[in-house]
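$ ./design --mode recover --in tokens.txt
reading tokens...
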């Protein structure tokens, strides 16, 4: 049994986990549906957003060159990282150059993807996560369980126990009090940090701006207070010009958190002397498999993703097992594809497309209308098959390709059903192939999904 199978079985037997994940996902989806319904031009905005993303992917290299020119003209520096090792190496070299030993990190899935936290810790550099959810999972020694809500899997009681133990204050499970305690702890680091690190939702080629979309203000504060600021993002996050942000920002918060807009939307560039902001600013554009995916006609569409997390919130599989069961930085429907694109895909990541019902809900809620089910099927087809599975698939294909063979197979199945004993587990071969009985007694609980 694989690690993923073990993790899935463990998650399915964890009732508190299932309850926390389901409640959070359903709340986010309901809020998303309410604010989407307010848009009279939702489908048109969706179409515009997809066109913006498609233009960026089709013209990516020229947009990266233009962004680099404009960002560096403003006084910053753009680096391109081929892979995880390259990206972490650039960050460590920048910190070493300034003898920076303690810093503040804001939420970044690309930083998680490249294993930056572990690289910093191994180098003896103290970097505290400043997003509250990321701070919680960092204290717990856990990876994030959701791309927008890292601590979604935890109840407020478990968070209260964790924070009171780690930060040394009396236990409480009151969210406002817990937030206040965490804020007090983090504020000291903001004011003394040697560096700030954050992700970026987009980078604008024509103006040289980075765009950060957040609710807590920690990304903006991590930019303004330390003397060194490093932004890490994927190469695919390009947009051509500032007006292109309009449909993206109208849909991102609505799809992600059910808000019309997030509390903070920051457009940042290198600052001039005397302005608030860092004296030194760098952007690291990470490839790590993205260019290869763009060149793949069957997976190219995934590069349009804006990481809203709506597909996780709607997915019946994710809602049942949570993010940690995927054993991947990127969980859920989008994660099953991303995990087979970025870094070095493994036999384990090849299993992830099987964690889907292919119900199509992920495509329905996607603000960019990405056909996730199609790519999940594509990756299932690419997965190496064992001898038995390959033989069964070949037999099925051969049978289904001929009406005569299909009919013959049906007759054999019906005959087998009549000859086999009715006492088989569940009796599923008897009574027309169903074990359901209208007169079955109510046993008080829903059966487990096996």
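writing sequence...
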């Amino acid at each position: 049994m694989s690690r993923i199978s073990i993790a899935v079985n463990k998650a399915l037997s964890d009732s508190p986990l299932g309850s926390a994940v389901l409640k959070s996902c359903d709340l986010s989806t309901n809020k998303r549906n309410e604010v989407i319904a307010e848009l009279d031009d939702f489908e048109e905005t969706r179409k515009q957003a997809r066109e913006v993303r498609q233009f960026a992917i089709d013209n990516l290299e020229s947009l990266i060159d233009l962004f680099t020119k404009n960002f560096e003209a403003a006084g910053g520096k753009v680096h391109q990282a081929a892979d995880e090792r390259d990206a972490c190496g650039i960050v460590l070299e920048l910190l070493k150059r300034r003898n920076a030993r303690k810093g503040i990190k804001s939420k970044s899935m690309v930083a998680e993807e490249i294993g930056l936290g572990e690289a910093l810790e191994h180098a003896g550099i103290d970097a505290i996560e400043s997003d509250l959810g990321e701070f919680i999972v960092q204290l717990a020694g856990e990876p994030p369980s959701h791309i927008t809500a890292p601590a979604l899997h935890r109840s407020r009681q478990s968070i209260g126990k964790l924070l009171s133990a780690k930060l040394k204050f009396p236990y409480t499970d009151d969210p406002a009090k817990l937030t206040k305690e965490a804020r007090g702890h983090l504020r000291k680091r903001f004011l003394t940090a040697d560096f700030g690190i954050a992700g970026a939702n987009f980078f604008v080629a024509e103006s040289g701006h980075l765009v950060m979309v957040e609710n807590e203000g920690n990304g903006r504060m991590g930019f303004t207070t330390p003397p060194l600021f490093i932004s890490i993002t994927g190469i695919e996050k390009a947009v051509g010009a500032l007006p292109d942000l309009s449909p993206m920002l109208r849909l991102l918060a609505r799809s992600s958190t059910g808000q019309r807009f997030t509390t903070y939307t920051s457009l940042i560039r290198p600052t001039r002397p005397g302005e608030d902001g860092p004296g030194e600013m760098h952007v690291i554009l990470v490839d790590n498999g993205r260019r290869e995916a763009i060149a793949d006609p069957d997976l190219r569409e995934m590069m349009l993703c804006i990481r809203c997390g709506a597909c996780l919130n709607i997915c019946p599989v994710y809602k049942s097992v949570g993010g940690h069961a995927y054993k991947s930085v990127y969980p859920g429907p989008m994660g099953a594809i991303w995990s087979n694109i970025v870094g070095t895909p493994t036999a384990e990541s090849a299993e992830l497309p099987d964690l889907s019902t292919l119900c199509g809900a992920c495509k329905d809620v996607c603000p960019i209308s990405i056909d996730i089910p199609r790519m999940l099927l594509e990756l299932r087809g690419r997965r190496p098959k064992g001898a038995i599975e390959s033989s069964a698939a070949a037999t099925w294909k051969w049978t289904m390709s001929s009406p005569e063979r299909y009919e013959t197979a049906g007759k054999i199945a019906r005959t087998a059903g009549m000859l086999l004993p009715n006492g088989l587990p569940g009796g599923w071969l008897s009574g027309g192939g169903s074990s359901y009985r209208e007169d079955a007694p109510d046993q008080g609980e829903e059966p487990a999904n096996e």
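exit 0
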